Amino acid sequence: MKALKSHLLHALGLLTIAVSGSSYAQSGVSPAAPAADALPNWAFIWDPTVKVPPPDDKPNSLPGSSASYSWRQARDLFVAPDWHPGNHGPMPDIVASGRKPDVRACGSCHRAEGTGGPENANLAGLPVNYFVQQIADFKSGARKMSGPDRPSVSLMLGSVKGMTDAEILAAAQYFAALKPKRNIKVVEAGTIPKIGEARLFFTKSPGGGTEPLGRRIVEFPDNEEQFELRDSNSTFTAYVPAGSVARGEALATTGGAGTTVACGTCHGPALKGVGPIPPIAGRSPTYIVRQLYEFKTGGRASSSGALMKQAVEKLSPDDIIALAAYVGSLEP
Fold it and tell me: Among 13, 22, 150, 194, which residue's Cβ finds the most Cβ atoms within 10 Å?
C-alpha cells in the first residue's frame, strides 16, 4: 500500500505529496495574523522534491467497477480512466484522450465524470457558456493561477491554448450534462490526522499521529489509492476550523453587514447556479479558497471577475476560509 501511495495521479507522473514550502503549512499552524492578501500556501500545495518510482503495467481493480487500469495508464495524461462508464454519456475525444502532442485529455486530471479533486476544478454541471468563457480567459491571460510554478498549471495552460473551438464546445457540453456528486464531508476540528508526503494535495502520514489544524483547510482523499487511480467515485474529508461553517453561512446568506454580498444574489438561493453563473454548492473548500484569493488579488480579471472582486475585497483570510467551509458543506 505504501508503494501504491507513491504513484501519482495528476498532472505529470509525480505523485506522493508533502506540503508546499512554508513551515506553517507543514507544522499545521498558520501565522497569528496573516496579511489580507498573503498567499494561503496550504491551498496551493506543491513540493517538487518528492520522488516517485517508475509506473508499472500491472492492472489494478477497484470495488464497484469491472474496469482495470495500470499505474502507467493512470499517469498518462492522454488517458482518462473510465471506471464507471455507465454513469455518463459518450466521452468526446478531447475528454477521453485529448490530442497529442500538447492537448491533454480533460478527463485525465478532471476525471471522467468531471469530479476533479482538491488540486483542481470540479467540472460536472458547469454551464456551457461559463465553461467556454473560462477557457477563453485562460487563453487570453485574463484568468491566471497564483502560487508556485506547478507543472500541473503549465500543462493545463498549454492544453487549453491548443484546444479548438469545436473541442472546447464538445467538452463544455459533456461536462454540463453530468450531475454533480456529493463527494466531500466537511468536518470542524482543532486537531487533524498528521500530514504525510504531499505534492499536489494533502495525504495522511503513514505513521499516524495528529497535528493542529490552525487557520487553514486540510482536505484529504478518503482512499488515496482510489483517488490516485482517478476514480470519479473518490470521496474526501475537508477539515475546517471550529465555528467556520456557521460563520460562513452568515456571510454567504446576509453579506455580513457589508463585508461582502450574499452569495445567493448571483449563484441562486441554494448556490446551485443560475443561467451562465456556475454552481458552487458542495465544491472543494480548498478550490473555493483559491478562487476567492484569485478574485481578490486580480488573478481572475474577466468582466465577471471584476464583479467578484467587489464582493471579496473586504474579506479577511478567516472570512475566506469560513465561506469555503460553508459552501463545501452544502448539497451540490
Answer: 150
d(CA 241, CA 230): 28
d(CA 197, CA 52) in angstroms, rounded, equals: 11
pLDDT (tens digit per residue) in 225-260: 999 999 999 999 999 999 999 999 999 999 999 999
Indicate if the pLDDT at residue 13 is higher than 80.
no
Sign for the pseudo-dihedral over CA of 277, 280, 283, 284 = positive
Q: How many residues does the chain have?
A: 332
| pTM, 2 dp | 0.90
**Grid coordinates of 202:** 494533502
Residue 110 clears pLDDT 50, i.e. is over it? yes
Residue 221's beta-bridge partner residues?
Answer: 236
What are the φ and ψ backbone dihedral angles of 301, each rounded to 5 degrees?
-115, 25
| Summary count for the chain: helices (H), strands (E) | 14, 5
Burial 74-103 (b: 16+ CB within 10 A, else e): bbbbebbbbbbeeebeebbebbbbbbeeeb
DSSP secondary structure code for residue 42 in this structure: G
For Cα atoms 223, 226, 232, give the angle at the middle one, nearest 5 degrees: 110
**Do residues 188 and 241 lie in contact, with contact meaning Cβ atoms separated by under 8 Å?**
yes
Give how far Cα 230 sits from Cα of 103, 113, 164, Å: 19, 10, 25
Torsion over CA: 297, 298, 300, 306 (sign): positive
Rounded to whole angstroms, the Cα distance separating 177 from 89 reads: 8
Cα–Cα distance, 327 to 248 (Å, whole number): 8
Q: Cis peptide before 34, with omega less than 30 degrees from 0?
A: no
